[in-house]
Amino acid sequence: MPIRILPDTLIDQIAAGEVIERPASVVKELVENSLDAGARRVEIDIERGGVGLVRVRDDGAGLAAQELPLALARHATSKIASLDELEAVATLGFRGEALPSIAAVSRLRMASRVAEAQHGFEITAEAGAVSAPRPCAQPPGTVVEVRELFFNVPARRKFVRSDATEASHIARLAERLALSRADVSFRLRNAERVLLDARAEPDRSRAGEARVRAVLGEEFLARALRIEHAAGPVSLAGWIGLPTASRAQPDEQYWFVNGRSVRDRLLMNAVRLAYRDVLYHGRHPAYVLYLMLDPRWVDVNAHPTKLEVRFRDARQIHDFVMRAVERALAATRPARDAAAAADAARTMAATDAPRLRPDAARPREWTRSPWALAGAVRDAGPASFEGAGLESGPAAVSDAAADHPLGTALAQLHGLYIVAQSRDGLILVDMHAAHERVLYEQLKAQYAASGVPSQQLIEPILVHLKPHELDAVLERRAEWERAGFDVSAMGPAQLAVRRVPALLGGQDIVRVVRAMLADLELGAAAHHLDGTADRFLGALACRTAIHAHRRLTLPEMDALLRQMEATDRANQCNHGRPTWARLTLAELDQLFLRGR
Ligand code: ADP
Ligand code: MG
User: What is the pTM of this model?
Assistant: First the structure.
């Protein structure tokens, strides 16, 4: 075949293949145009999953008659005029290829009116052939109707899924768009049925929260922390879900960069890392985060659909986001007024099971949650050790203690839970989970300061190991060392331990070393450590924390409660399960139908 220049329509159809993947892409491009035109209200109507019709109506600036044909011309845009402007682009569009691409693969009508004009003008296009503008009735603003998408590209149409699937893609997209601009009203209807109706809250200080409520529901807000962080020209704001409100899927993760919804690996990874110390393996945090920065610092032209972005200083942005989220999460520790692990656990229980009613009430439902159940499965062997870093103070069962968020310990329940009385009700604490977190945070802080304090043994303790186990330990000797152990080989199948972390106290060192070895070296058993920032210290904390059925004295229990209150992230154990739950007096009254 001889070389020839492709006809324009074919070029547009090829471009459409990149930009217009499915009906939702049409919605995205049209709504972004509306937002770029300064719309305060955007109405979206779809039929047959968007294949039959996508109509987007806005009250934005509009277009004059002579501009209408240009809007449909390839590489025609009003948004940038030079490379400089491209590098500082603040609009959602700038490539000037959406409308011609859509027009090349559908039947399109665009009507528009600028505010000053007496009436509007419309043009139509079918498979790329554009009509001349004609006067028409049209309120100020623009409407674009796209019918029979892909009618002339059967290959594309094959990739379109069922109406319901395409409609749900559009609905999820509309949610993201609505979250991106709390100051704009959005409505989405599917064949007259309203799928989303989010009105802009006029009070600017509450608009963001109102929008999150409208899209994700009160449920989300009740289990999220507000985050607001700025460093010079970069700022991060939004809501991050409590670790105890994590999800099985990463389906509630929303990132916006300068008002543009993105799915950016760097940003998602920064959040994932920030949560790694507080989330169970395989769970995903929920969040809505807005990053604002100078548009020149971010290249949105990395991909035709602009879903991915490139930061000029990727490392810095990554660390900024990670630290901001980490800091917010550090504050998840017992406090009387803060949203507690307990409350999150209860919300979770409420969604999993019918709401608690007196006749259905059995005590274990108070704290019922996937975590509470998983948490009950723990090694139940008798603990033959003492101490474990738990310094007990004098018996402090006084009124003053009831002032603490976690109150005063009353008893130990089934060797698993501490029962305490707080000023406003009853507190239950998962003893092992809580202690594990306290130790882990202590170890991390010690390690960062001057190293984990350790203790020389009078005589080395010998641990019999299989040769490959011995090799595994020696291979990671440096790590054992920084966690406070001095280990060396004593023959082909024996490990000599000469120094141990001080917090081990009088514990059975052979048992702890073996358990840690199993956690660290034998993949299968270690999956629960994957989340932790420091697997080694995590394993040490887990294996030295008080275990089930270890009897604690009341002062020991109180000491643990006070330590929890002083420990960052203490609302959840190292695997993200809640460490404590609260039942307020009001809830108890309700349980017993007692009027107050
Ligand atoms: P881009 O958005 O990249 O500029 P498009 O093909 O999406 O390219 O749109 C081309 C031009 O048409 C835009 O630059 C804008 O001037 C105009 N336009 C499109 N949609 C609207 C709208 N809803 N209101 C006003 N102008 C619009
Ligand atoms: Mg556009």
Answer: 0.74
